[in-house]
Design goal:
This protein is of the alpha/beta class. Helix content is about 40%, strand content about 15%. Helix 12 packs across helix 14 (about 340-350). The protein is globular. The two termini are about 15 Å apart.
Length: about 375
């Protein structure tokens, strides 16, 4: 059976891009259609087709391009396929090709229904005047297009519930792929001399938070956990929230170490040497908690959201609804006592091989 893979846009990094890469490996003969492709080297030449939107300045502004996206997805060129598989976190499930592919069954793997319009409380970009004005007509259209899918898969139970509330559709949960084997292997031999020296300079015991430095990731909670417990903190990453985080860290001299843009090998070592990995945001699923567990490190995560489906409270970490000082102290104490082997065993349940089996079974059924 021949198929087509559809994805919103291909960015240089991102969890949804990792899903598309796994789908591309699973279905090597399936061409990929995307609004635009910002990382051409990720796939072989000719495999990814961009839409006409890629030839306009709008590719550099998702907010300005958003009103046109539903139209672009409905005017795709002629293609032939036995099935169409959409990887959607905005409007790619609206995709409609001309030619024989127009009548092919459409499967939709949902990272989330568009947070801009369905969950603006979790995404500040949906609270602007422009977004609010568009949300009413877009909700009606989005719900209508979601009915075209013959089957929908959600990346977590959390998102399955959002799909039911937003679109009135049931879905199958297929957790996204995690390269557990890559994190389970010790990367110390791949470190540069500078990275080895950096690791040697870190405290023997520390709490780790690693992600993009953006407000909704709530990395300030990791600093608060360090203050509450007296344990040093390492923040790995970069982003627009860095000045605020550094200002908070300056209030507690010597408590926080910042590590910008860690390589894979360095991040692996940061995970496995940390006392606990702290992951406070409400996420659709959350890949990094599984990566941390793959190294044997327990995780403190939000009890609301997808991470609560991978982290087992009291077994591979701790789940929190409150992030006050008392709750953080208790969570660090509970998570630090988790068994490393249990963390690794749990991580393997989300490996890419499990994802592949579930996706193939879903499509073939």
């Amino acid at each position: 059976m021949s198929g087509l893979i559809v994805h919103e846009w291909l960015a240089k990094t991102g969890g949804s891009e990792n899903v598309v890469e796994a789908l591309a490996d699973l279905f090597p003969d399936a061409p990929i259609t995307s609004l635009w492709n910002d990382l051409p080297s990720r796939f072989e030449d000719g495999r990814v087709s961009e839409t006409w939107l890629a030839r306009t300045p709008l590719r550099r502004s998702k907010a300005l391009a958003l009103p046109l996206m539903p139209l672009v997805w409905r005017t795709l060129p002629a293609a032939s396929a036995d099935w169409v598989l959409c990887s959607s976190h905005l409007f790619s499930h609206h995709a409609r090709f001309a030619g024989p592919a127009r009548h092919a069954p459409k499967y939709v793997y949902v990272h989330t229904p568009a947070r801009y319009i369905w969950a603006p409380e979790l995404d500040g970009r949906g609270n602007g005047i422009f977004a609010k004005a568009l949300s009413v007509p877009l909700k009606a259209l989005d719900r209508k297009r979601a009915q075209e899918a013959v089957s929908i898969a959600a990346n977590s139970e959390f998102i399955r519930e959002r799909i039911a509330q937003s679109w009135g559709r049931d879905s199958t949960v297929i957790y996204p792929p995690v390269s557990v084997g890559a994190y389970a292997g010790d990367s110390e031999s791949d470190l540069t001399v500078e990275e080895s020296d950096l690791l040697s300079s870190l405290p023997e015991t520390y709490l780790l938070a690693a992600s993009r430095f953006v407000p909704y990731k709530r990395l300030d909670v990791a600093i608060a956990a360090g203050v509450a417990t007296g344990v040093k903190v390492v923040l790995a990453g970069e982003g627009p929230d860095e000045p605020r985080l550094r200002a908070l860290a300056d209030e507690h001299p010597g408590l926080v170490t910042f590590i910008p843009r860690p390589s894979f090998a360095l991040l692996n070592q940061l995970f496995r040497r940390a006392l606990v990995y702290i992951f406070p945001p409400i996420e659709d699923f959350g890949i990094m908690p599984v990566e941390a567990m793959a190294t044997g490190t327990p995780v403190i995560a939000n009890a609301i959201g997808g991470a609560a489906e991978s982290v087992k409270d009291g077994v591979t970490g701790a789940l929190l609804r409150s992030f006050d000082a008392s709750a953080l102290r208790s969570a660090v104490d509970l998570a630090a006592r988790a068994d490393s082997a249990a963390c690794i065993e749990r991580a393997w349940e989300f490996d890419v091989t499990v994802f592949n089996e579930r996706i193939k079974s879903w499509i073939e059924s």
